[in-house]
Amino acid sequence: MIKHFKNGSYDIAYLTQGEGRDILFLHGFPSNMYMWDEITSALNHQDYRTTVIEQRGYPLSSSKKMRPNDFTIDKLCDDVEILIKNLDLNNKLTIVGHDWGTVVAWALVKRNKVHVEKLLSICGGTLFPSSKVYSSLNYEDGDHYITSFQKPENAAILMDENIRNSILGAYRTKNKEVNVSLSIQSLFNDINHDEYALTDIQIESITSHYKANGFYGPISWYKNLDENIEISKNWINNEVSQEITFMFGEKDMAVLLNEKMLERLTNEADLVNIKEISGAGHWLPYTHKESVLNEIYSLNKDY
User: Which listed residue, of 52, 198, 200, 211, carries a Cα 20 to 30 Å from 230's Cα?
Assistant: First the structure.
């Protein structure tokens, strides 16, 4: 049964199930807490207590008046830290994050306000670069989508116009074009796609999920990239002693594991494992559930 806790004007939704070692799951964009259902179901049969959260600004954890500065990295972390403390998630806690969830998870480890034993980061990283990085990336049909997201009201209007189309565009797994545009017009639009990470039932479910509030809250997270860099200076130099695994899809259009990222991530902590899944894209929790489960089991093999 989904429950809520209040943090300021936000009612944050979460679900905890099972008994045993604690695994906390953090979704990214444009997902929701249900993306982990099949993975948590498997873990609940293997002596794990799983907890999933719908992060602030997303449909089940929204507020009547949402502003971009509600979604700075410290506030996103605060929600999760409250949940960890309220539920006493202290049984060898592993955090699993996907996409934006990996950035929140990394900040949680760095802030060290709650005890985290291990971290699995899926198709993400540690911190977004500045907005200037994305403003230099242009395509024939427009700016990089993160540049467009710097104006969340306008971006939300565009994506909310056809929510199902935006979902289909986001969850594509194969493309007819080799060089894919990452503009908002192309990335979140059902053109030039022929396969998806979601089943038809899942597509309808997540489309329905977003119809109540649209994309404004989640898009607003991206408005704070530069402010997050400043905020993170408070903990960026803290040491990380936990074992960290970074998973990537070989054909992920949004988060590419290049040599520069590989070198940086390897130096982020003493115990770092980096895995790249051959032929996979951005949606590993849907398309490669067994690989995700195997990494969770591997991180917990010493317990």
Answer: 52
- Dihedral angle sign, alpha carbons of residues 184, 53, 47, 17: negative
What's the token pair of residue 29? 């964009």
Q: What is the mean pLDDT of the chain?
A: 94
Q: What is the 3-state secondary structure (H, E, C) of 44-72?
A: HCCCEEEEEEECCCCHHHCCCCCCHHHHC
Residue 220 belongs to what H/E stretch?
helix 216-220
Own/partner long-range contacts of 110-117 (Cβ < 8 Å, ≥24 apart) = 110/232, 110/235, 110/236, 110/238, 110/240, 111/77, 111/81, 111/235, 111/238, 112/235, 112/238, 113/77, 113/81, 114/80, 114/81, 114/84, 114/85, 114/89, 115/90, 116/242, 117/92, 117/93, 117/242, 117/243
Number of structural domains in the chain: 1
CATH code of the domain covering residue 183: 3.40.50.1820
What are the pLDDT digits (tens) for 167-201? 999 998 865 555 778 899 988 987 666 789 999 99
84 vs 268, which has greater pLDDT?
84
Q: Which domain holds residue 141?
A: 3-299
Longest CA pairwise span in the chain (Å)? 52
